[in-house]
Protein 1
Amino acid sequence: MKGIIVYKGKYGTTHQYAGWLRNELDLHLAPAENCKKYQLELSDVIVIGSSIYTGKLLIGKWLKNNIDTLRNKKIFLFAVCGTPVSETKKLQTYLESSVPAELLHQCKVYFLPGRLVYKNLSWTDKLLLRMGAMLTKEPEAKNSMLAGYDNVKEENMDELVNDIKTFAGIKAEPVLQE
């Protein structure tokens, strides 16, 4: 089984999850901007990771640009965000706004908890976060938006890893690297 992990993130959490997956599954890891078409074509399984930023998957444009190559591939998509897994309607909206419908139907999707370290944010992101907090009516949610959090754990990926291994039936091998 040949495969690749393609990811796009903003502050490092998606890369961290992708790295853990690489170590667990022994697949090639490529930032979306460095992923080559032939790597996707050679892959039997494609794991795609993206952080969610302002309600959209950062990898959305890449998905649209590579739709022809991704069509009919087995795709496991993980999205990293601060939105609780219990908020299924909101999470589904994020997917629908970023993933082409024909790809969404062939993806198995996993939402993984993220991290927010306020001091590491750009000034623009700090401003956006403060504006979002001001618009939030629930005091507890408002405070948690600005307090930061770190829910990143390797075991958050257990279901994803098990599903990929089950699909592969054998230990996956990496796609050729340049």
Protein 2
Amino acid sequence: MDNKIDRKLQDMSNIWNEILDAFFLEANLRPRQILVLGCSTSEVIGQRIGQGSSSEVAQVLLPPLLSRVRQQGTFLAVQGCEHINRALVVEEDCAEHYGLEIVTVRPALHAGGAMTVKAWESFSSPVMVERVQGHAGIDIGDTFIGMHLRPVVIPIRIHVKELGEAHLTLARTRPRLIGGPRAVYE
């Protein structure tokens, strides 16, 4: 049984790296921009959102993402579940840079989810914030991260549509186009 689980986690890791390659190529994030991650580890393993948080899945998914974010000099914001009002774990530097209000809550396995717990443990100086205006997003399991993205969201379409059993949505944002018929857009 353990070999079967290990094989599934290794397969997931390989697919996740493919997803990250495609995502970062299309997202075009610049240093100090914010990437929002919403992930239901329950959905990834085929359970209903919030019903089967998996620390093992979080352990497979977060480290390679965090490594890429750090290499690019961007910030990662990991959204918690509704039991903590979808608050996000960010590095204290991110909160300071964007003037985000820090809130008092600490994620737990069944109040925040496995991914926020793993982020809390992995970040250098983690804090919780109520909201961000992210520049791109990864939503695994329909966690609805849209409330934490800038207003004009553009889907990123890649060849992978699911991670494990969870629906996958990728997005980037762009500045609003304003003006009328004479406006010029690059």
Protein 3
Amino acid sequence: MMLMMAMSVTHAASAQGTSRHFHHTVRTSAPPQRVWALWMDVPGWPAWDTELSAASQDAPLALGVQGTVTSGSRTSPFTVTVFEPGRHYAYTVPLPLGKLVVDRSLQPWGDGGTAFTHEVRLTGLGGLVLAGLGKQFRAALPGVMDALAALAEAE
């Protein structure tokens, strides 16, 4: 769902990269702790990530924590593989013959705002097979990040 709000968001027109490895950065006036709090609310991810219909985790996000993400009718497990509190985390979703890696990082920007980056990598033979899905995710990423910025600014 795309939120219609006045936002102070700056980004390029589309995610940079290829259908197997792409990233996008947004700058928002919301402070880093607001963006981080939304990222840590795993069941709340579908409120801003239009590619997800559900998400859950076994425990608060930390290194090694597992959970699930549902996109359409497919539910997939994930494991947190990188975790730097308040700054950076990544999770990996196993694919047949490969994996999907979602990497999110933020840093203070401007006068109290935040620059945050969302990077996606599809690896292995599974990444080749799912390049079409990557193309869909790449196209959706700027809107997803704008929705996250809007929620962070509204709090």
Protein 4
Amino acid sequence: MARRKPTSRWRLRLAALAVLVLLAGFVVLWWHLRGWMPSRQDYSVQGAEVSAADGAMDWTALKTIGTDFVYLDASASAFARDNAFVKNLEDARAAHLQVGAVHLYDPCQPADKQAANFVTVVPRDSKLLPPAVDLDRLADDCPSPVSDAAVTSELMTFLNQVENHAGKSVILKLSSRFERRYHIAHALGRKLWLVRTRLEPDYAGRPWILWTANDRLMTDADDKPLRWVVLQR
């Protein structure tokens, strides 16, 4: 039987070492993100995004760790609603947090039905923060084809109706893939909320006001990872 050449053995060892280094890097990053928040010197106002999926939140603990505001997931598409929104709104206000509401936009559904869903769930209240619309879903999987132009047009209809209800301009929570596809950051002229873990986002091509800086933050407020958001003044 032929012996394996020494060169082959070294290649296997080097490959195994590379895999171990890569895994160690992931572990270090995971551990780092469990407790990482952007500096308060850079971002003095910080908060979180909360939904029913986060389970029971300890709002006092959330306030204690330095939360200034929360955005609560409220509605999605034309019919879905976050079943914890009403209680979360009440509890967040009792903890003396500023509160806003988020709608997850669905390009497959008519804008007016989505707006009706949002305004049914979210009260008309001047004390609420500007509403946010989460733009991540693409129209690629819609049952009926939806053109890029139609996505932008319907989105404008949705924004106008929600802003009429809220009395404030909507903030666009814009994912990188949605921006790459529809290029709306400049077209719609609303303030932006961008998402990128650990590194400041720049994919919109213009300044943002909110940044989801860490979606894996572990705190005493919950036993699940928290989506941590900072404000840029």
